[in-house]
Amino acid sequence: MCLLTSTFSYTKIFVTLRRYRSRVENRVQQEHPSQSIPLNISRYRKAVSSALWLQSVTLVVCYLPFGIADVLFTQSGLSSTVYAVREFGVALVFLNLSLNPILYCWKIREVRQAVKDTIRHLFVIT
Question: Which residues contact 100 (CB under 8 A, 6 or more apart)?
Answer without folding.
Answer: 55, 58
